[in-house]
Each structure stands twice: as structure tokens, then as C-alpha cells.
């Protein structure tokens, strides 16, 4: 078990890394609509279809980073609380909201000790957040506490198993924190202890050839540009060769065993309603 000193050191490293990221990113480089609408935003498009209408919903965006998702949800009529461990990330997200004409409530907090009310939110969303958290049981406890009865969470994070992505991780040392730990099957089993109807869907197997293109053809070093951000700048016209691979992945990600070679996993589950508890 990690000591309190270890936990504090990890917290401080995460804050420093993400404060620096916020400081180095101009507001006009933050992609909001692309985060959900780019042809490569397959995880968020899947999540949006399952969420349905957002108008009037109270959404907690944990690990919101620069605020892309928080602003997008607010533009669709949701009341959004944006949470991040980095004070500068929260500040940047709130400012981004103002730029787009929406108001976000900003909270500086780690996921394991959420500074929000109990039974408050209809939806909790986490993008690339769980793999930054080491005490995931505590995180799931906090998500459950903050959700209204019957409320739902959606997350997406990288998986641990694909050898190509693990090579990329070994190279992209300057755009990742040293404490990241991609998800495994154990994390999905853990979520089932805290939520009802837990499901998961995997993304990016054959489509990962886009990473190979960036590295071998475009000659972009992984430390030069975050590949997952670069992908959001792609357009349909530049991806005609890649689009058929999405169809192939829709098959591959349904094959037991093979699906765990995916880059990312979307996970969801809901908090038991008062009726089902009684």
C-alpha cells in the first residue's frame, strides 16, 4: 500500500504536469466541437448516442483538463461542473466556457476526494482520467456518492494490452505523466462492485495504423505532438483511406480476446435507484 508521502508526491507531479500543459496551451488551440464531432472521435460519438438529450442535465466532468468536454456539454444545454486536480486547468476551462458563451462551475479536486455534493448529478463523465488515478476503488466510491440515484457515468481510457501502443508509450515520455497506469480487466470487474449494468466497448485496433502513419510517413515524433490531439484535427477528406478500418474495428472489437488489443475502452454503469435498493 502506498504511504501518504507517496500519494502526496503523485498528486504534486500530476498538478505540476497539468498546470504546465494549461500554461502552454493557447485558448484558440483548444478543440471543442472536434472533441466529439471529428471523424476520429469515435469514443465520444458512442457516448453521446447513449446519453441522448443533455438539456437541463447536471453533469460532473471529472479530470476535465482544458475543458473541451465541459464546454461541449454546456453548449448542448447541460449544467456542467468541471473538475480537475490542476488549478490552471480549471481556470483555463472556465475561461474557455466564457469564450463560447457558456458558464461552467469550476472545482479544483482530485477524483478520490471529490469536493461536490452527494446525490447531485445526473451524469458523470471522465475522459482519460481513470488511468491517472491509483486508488480506483476510492474514485468509484466518489462517483457513486456524487451521482443521483439512477444516474449514470461514462468514461473512456486507454487499455494496457496493445504492444504497439505500449511502444508508443515508451517513446512519448514528455507528453505523459510517469504515474499513468492504463486500464485492465480488473478495473472493469472493480466497477461492477459499485455500479449496476456496467458495460464496456473497445475502440481502435486496425485504426491504430494512423499512429504508424504519423510516425513513419509524416515523421512526427510522439513528443512533438500528442497523437490523440492531432487526430482530432483530421477531416473526412484526409481519412478516406482510414474510414474502412473503422468498419473493420466494429467487428474486431466484438471478438473475445481480440477486443483487448484495442487502444481505448469506454465504460459505463448506473447508480442503483432508491426503488431498486428498497
Number of strands: 7
Distance between the termini: 36 Å
Tell me the fraction of residues in β-strands, as a range.
15-25%
User: Helix count?
Assistant: 12
Strand order of the largest sheet: 3-2-1-4-5-7-6
| Element-level helix/strand string | HHHEHEHEEHEHHEHHHEH
What does the radius of gyration come to? 18 Å
How many separate domains make up the residues? 1
Q: What is the CATH class name? A: Alpha Beta
What's the architecture, going by CATH? 3-Layer(aba) Sandwich
- Poorly predicted tracts of residues: none
Shape: globular
Major sheet description? 7 strands, mixed
Question: TL;DR?
Answer:
The protein is of the alpha/beta class and 278 residues long.
Fold blueprint:
Elements: H1 4-24, H2 34-37, H3 42-51, E1 58-62, H4 68-75, E2 79-84, H5 87-99, E3 105-108, E4 121-127, H6 136-146, E5 147-158, H7 163-171, H8 185-191, E6 196-203, H9 209-217, H10 227-230, H11 243-252, E7 264-270, H12 274-277
Parallel strand pairs: 1-2, 1-4, 2-3, 4-5
Antiparallel strand pairs: 5-7, 6-7
Helix pairs in contact: 1-5
How would you describe this structure to a colleague?
The chain has 278 residues and is an alpha/beta fold. It has one domain (4-272): Vaccinia Virus protein VP39 (Rossmann fold, 3-Layer(aba) Sandwich). The protein has 12 helices and 7 strands. The chain has a 7-stranded mixed β-sheet. Helix 1 packs parallel to helix 5 (87-99). The model has no long low-confidence stretch (mean pLDDT 93).
Key structural traits:
alpha/beta, Rossmann fold, 278 residues, seven-stranded mixed sheet, single chain
